């Protein structure tokens, strides 16, 4: 079965609507391809998104604010994000002309370098903490990344 | 003028700096910790960047991440606010090294004023009165005894790197000196990493009166009058006002001139505050200088009609102040109450939580500086300041009555606040008469009588 | 001073009066309709009483129920706010009859100024310039033709009982007079129950400049400078400022003296406003006098440091003003933007609904007068004014920049507001230069270019 | 299967309708392609009234605000309030020494005077609009009453 990707912008949009409505405690919207349930908690929003054949994914957003791509932004039973441990510039390869450390579809091992973050003129190698398949690289090469930003998603059930 | 400025801070002061930047046409970058994702400064800034986990040491004090953000987003200035990195000469130097303007004084001025003993010596040399005491740090007990004999008891032992009351001991007799030195040193070492101590004559029931100054890079230094910050609890200011009650204009003018001398003596630029201890006979002594914007700057803005943060940014960009001492005119009276998320009925314990309802006061003569809003979750990691209410009146009476009115209508549900405490102070007959001193709260306010806040009706 | 005061109004002005009373130590009684059960004025007042169903005619205009409440709860004064019963001489008389002080002028002064033709005659006699035109009402077409020939075309036909643009017609040629008289009379009869008309020379592109006055019962009358209210749409003021831009102090002083003469001429007491039409050559003409507190009074409070509502209540209680003309000093510049729950993209249609989020602006030089809060449901029965934002600056530029900043940070979710419209005005080059006139919005603002409010970032 | 986007304006509109209806606690709408469920935040005074159809409807009062003494404050299948049509002083009898118009337990007929409200020196007789038993008189004699205040409750099932 092919992996279906969530439309993250849709999820963010629904969460934003729930967040901006102080009267609303829970919101559920459902279309033939996607169902999103939002349950609000004090100070934030808890959301569950599911696709017909998929497992639920918890999504946290910021009320009245573009959903940050923070460490808790995307996680699930089997999708583990690699997050930025510092602020800096994200590089997929050690040098501009070198091959990327990993590409989507690659299997990574714990401790394997998956990218570099340059901060204060220092190049910091970022390692995967889990074994699995890189299903998505979320950040463009040479982009600035925030602390905690999800850089890529690793599917730990893949082999 | 700057094109883009990063605010290395959070809370109400980050919002305050964003407001100043917007009025100056400067784009803003907010930085925030994981705990502040929903903070108002993040929502108001043009850009926002997460710089670390909730702990301040890993986020708002994380110089590498802050500097990386500054460089990645191409800012040309950093405003440190107060607290965090505001009085860190090292941070100010790093900014200099990478050609980003630090909105504050030069590192040397921060460093001098950061060392209490060095500051004292410099001030004395500049003709600014200091409390009689040791010339520089005291090395041992016999030296301390010698100085105590010459200035007379009681004396106070202080930490050179001190602040907030830590590393401080009042000594009434020569027999107690040894123990006071030992405990103060231990406290100072634990709190500041330096056990260096100095001695001063102890001034009983002093007032805390400070002078706001502004200095540009063209040798113009002016003062904006004085603030009385005597209403404190454990060395934390709670209520400030300008002008200080019951004080003649001539006295404030003398304080102001001394403050300007102090600034000139250390080649100060930016906004800053020179704090004085004032004794019952009207003698004043240099206490310390805060080389940053202060929480209580709005009371001065209200009576002078200036915008201190805008002027601070303007002079950081190399511009001239554009106003001279003669242009500064004090009008009316202003009071600030710090509304903290603390429970005054339980020893002012910090009370983070979610602000369920938040209806700030409005109307004539009322200013509110806050980062809170209905639904805001106060994180437990930082200070408890939730809002500053500042009222202006044609005279002190009107400012007090208006503050009472504003606090009565301020609706904050979900967390206890210091509002009931402030109402007690405002109703206190001694306060109304302007009889204030730094131990006012201890002496005049019986916190045990604090009842739950009366209902609106 | 009064012991207990009833506010016969709702919305922000009811809140404003409660604030003044609290600062004066007067207990307050709010009255409210069924639709206003959760209104802020109900929550803030010491007592609140429901006086009728939502329709204003059965609640806020229901004199029997209001007077019953006043007597039942033992109030000694009634403040009418603006609108509703504020300029109803009958209501003011009833208050007099039952020995409750009406906080406003004597019924006679209200009555004179309520009749435009009578007011005009009285003002002319007092030496206050009026627009050339008919002496009193015009009875027929031939009389109208005769007057038109003597003052010259264009002329304007107005209803004696008029206001809000109804019963008004501009006539450019003698051929059009008959039809103009007919339609204006029909409109006036429908709107005000009286078809009485008068004629005036039509002043093209005038400015609306008004003078705030205050008068006590001891024959003291002062003015607090002038306000420019030229930014209007369909005769509804939208943005006001003080002092009027590009006008000399001498001119304002002349306006002020004329306003004081006007007040003396009708034995006025209380706060009031004399409105003038100012032509392109700087001639000014009496337009009308509002015998009540006005929506835009805060801009005057900001530049003079006075509290007009407190002074209004004080003089109603028989006290002296306590300030004379020499004490009045204008400092800086203030602007007010009326934030209405209207959709400027759809012909300003009123848009009641629930205010989902409400984060008012704050910081230096910003005042907010509002009865709204997060979760407030705007009832569809009354006017659409949701909040007034007033900014002060050391000069007009700073006041404008600050207003821009304040409106950008004002977060109102759930209903459309006039904020995008105000941002367009503030950014308009003619407005920035102070080129304003009563048809400014028509001529300089292209409402079709209004885009959805830009996101914060 | 093609990816369908949520109509965000539709979601917002449904939330607004729910928010603007103080009587509504939950709202669910469903079309072949979209289903939206809204559950509102609870808080404040909660009263339960029955609709003729028998379905319970949750009614929320204003949080942090005394429950209004209006006509909607107390209602039910069979309890009908007599409300004040004007502001004034409530009197149970025509004169201080006269017997009260009605007492608890009395049966009243439509049009029967049940009390007087004095307003502006005028004595206004207030009539019952229904037939039933007066089960409770809610206001003390000679008390001020607001517009719409419930004065007494009449049980229309009693006979």
Automatic annotation (TrEMBL), chains A, D:
InterPro entries: AcCoA_biotinCC (IPR001249), Biotin_BS (IPR001882), Biotin_Carboxyl_Carrier/Decarb (IPR050709), Biotin_lipoyl (IPR000089), Single_hybrid_motif (IPR011053). Signal peptide: none annotated. The keyword NAD does not apply. Keywords: Biotin, Fatty acid biosynthesis, Fatty acid metabolism, Lipid biosynthesis, Lipid metabolism. Pathway: Lipid metabolism; fatty acid biosynthesis. It comes from the Bacteria. GO terms for cellular component: acetyl-CoA carboxylase complex. Residues 79-155 form the Lipoyl-binding domain. The keyword Lipid metabolism applies. One of its GO terms (biological process) is fatty acid biosynthetic process. GO terms for molecular function: acetyl-CoA carboxylase activity. This protein is a component of the acetyl coenzyme A carboxylase complex; first, biotin carboxylase catalyzes the carboxylation of the carrier protein and then the transcarboxylase transfers the carboxyl group to form malonyl-CoA. PANTHER family: OXALOACETATE DECARBOXYLASE ALPHA CHAIN. This is Biotin carboxyl carrier protein of acetyl-CoA carboxylase.
Automatic annotation (TrEMBL), chains B, C:
Its EC number is 6.3.4.14. SUPFAM superfamilies: Glutathione synthetase ATP-binding domain-like, PreATP-grasp domain, Rudiment single hybrid motif. Keywords: ATP-binding, Biotin, Fatty acid biosynthesis, Fatty acid metabolism, Ligase, Lipid biosynthesis, Lipid metabolism, Magnesium, Metal-binding, Nucleotide-binding. SMART domains: Biotin_carb_C. GO terms for biological process: fatty acid biosynthetic process; malonyl-CoA biosynthetic process. Pathway: Lipid metabolism; malonyl-CoA biosynthesis; malonyl-CoA from acetyl-CoA: step 1/1. Residues 1-446 form the Biotin carboxylation domain. It is an enzyme of class 6 (ligase). Transmembrane segments: none annotated. Residues 120-317 form the ATP-grasp domain. This protein is a component of the acetyl coenzyme A carboxylase complex; first, biotin carboxylase catalyzes the carboxylation of the carrier protein and then the transcarboxylase transfers the carboxyl group to form malonyl-CoA. Acetyl-CoA carboxylase is a heterohexamer of biotin carboxyl carrier protein, biotin carboxylase and the two subunits of carboxyl transferase in a 2:2 complex. This is Biotin carboxylase. It comes from Candidatus Segetimicrobium genomatis.
């Amino acid at each position: 079965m092919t992996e279906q990707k969530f439309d993250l912008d849709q999820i963010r949009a629904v969460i934003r609507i729930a967040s901006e409505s102080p009267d609303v405690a829970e919101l559920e919207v459902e279309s033939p391809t996607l169902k999103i349930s939002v349950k609000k908690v004090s100070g934030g929003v808890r959301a569950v998104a599911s696709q017909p054949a998929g497992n639920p994914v918890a999504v946290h957003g910021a009320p009245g604010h573009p959903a940050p791509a923070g460490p808790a932004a995307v996680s699930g039973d089997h999708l583990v994000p690699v997050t930025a441990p510092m602020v800096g510039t994200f590089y997929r390869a050690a040098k501009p002309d070198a091959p990327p450390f990993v590409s989507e579809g690659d299997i990574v091992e714990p401790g394997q370098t998956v990218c570099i973050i340059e901060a204060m003129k220092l190049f910091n190698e970022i390692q995967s903490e889990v074994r699995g398949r890189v299903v998505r690289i979320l950040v463009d090469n040479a982009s600035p990344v925030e602390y905690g930003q999800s850089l890529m998603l690793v599917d730990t059930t893949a082999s | 003028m700057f094109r883009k400025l990063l605010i290395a801070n959070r809370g109400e002061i980050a919002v305050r700096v964003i407001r100043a930047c917007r009025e100056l046409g400067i784009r803003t970058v907010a930085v925030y910790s994981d705990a502040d994702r929903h903070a108002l400064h993040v929502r108001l800034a043009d850009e926002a960047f997460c710089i670390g986990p909730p702990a301040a040491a890993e986020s708002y004090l994380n110089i590498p991440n802050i500097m990386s953000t500054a460089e990645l987003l191409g800012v040309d200035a950093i405003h440190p606010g107060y607290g965090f990195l505001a009085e860190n000469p090292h941070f100010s130097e790093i900014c200099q090294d990478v050609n980003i303007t630090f909105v504050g004084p030069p590192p040397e001025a921060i460093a001098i004023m950061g060392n209490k003993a060095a500051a004292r010596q410099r001030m004395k040399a500049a003709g600014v009165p200091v409390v009689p005491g040791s010339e520089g740090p005291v090395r041992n007990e016999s030296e301390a005894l010698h100085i105590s004999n010459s200035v007379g008891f009681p004396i106070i032992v202080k930490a050179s790197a001190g602040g907030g009351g830590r590393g401080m001991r009042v000594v009434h007799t020569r027999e107690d000196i040894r123990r006071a030195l030992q405990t103060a040193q231990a406290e100072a070492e634990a709190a500041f990493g330096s056990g260096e101590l100095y001695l001063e004559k102890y001034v009983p029931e002093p007032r805390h009166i400070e002078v706001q100054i502004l200095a540009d890079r063209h040798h113009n230094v002016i003062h904006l009058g004085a603030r009385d910050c005597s209403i404190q609890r454990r060395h934390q200011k709670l209520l400030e006002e300008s002008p200080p009650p019951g004080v003649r204009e001539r006295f404030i003018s003398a304080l102001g001139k001394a403050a300007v001398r102090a600034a000139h003596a250390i080649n100060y630029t930016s906004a800053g505050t020179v704090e004085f201890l004032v004794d019952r006979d009207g003698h004043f002594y240099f206490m310390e200088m805060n080389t940053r914007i202060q929480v209580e700057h709005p009371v001065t803005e209200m009576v002078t009609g200036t915008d201190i943060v805008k002027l601070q940014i303007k002079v950081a960009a190399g511009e001239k102040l554009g106003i001279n001492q003669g242009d500064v005119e004090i009008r009316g009276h202003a009071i600030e109450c710090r509304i903290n998320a603390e429970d005054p009925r339980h020893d002012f314990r910090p009370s983070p939580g979610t602000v369920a309802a938040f209806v700030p006061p409005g109307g004539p003569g009322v200013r509110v500086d806050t980062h809170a809003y209905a639904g805001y979750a106060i994180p437990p990691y930082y200070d408890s300041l939730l809002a500053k209410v500042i009222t202006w009146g044609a005279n002190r009476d009107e400012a007090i009555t208006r503050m009472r009115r504003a606090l009565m209508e301020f609706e904050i549900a979900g967390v206890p606040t210091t509002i009931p405490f402030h109402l007690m102070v405002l109703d206190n007959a001694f306060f109304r008469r302007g009889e204030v001193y730094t131990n006012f709260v201890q002496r005049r306010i019986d916190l045990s009588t604090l009842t739950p806040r009366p209902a609106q009706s």
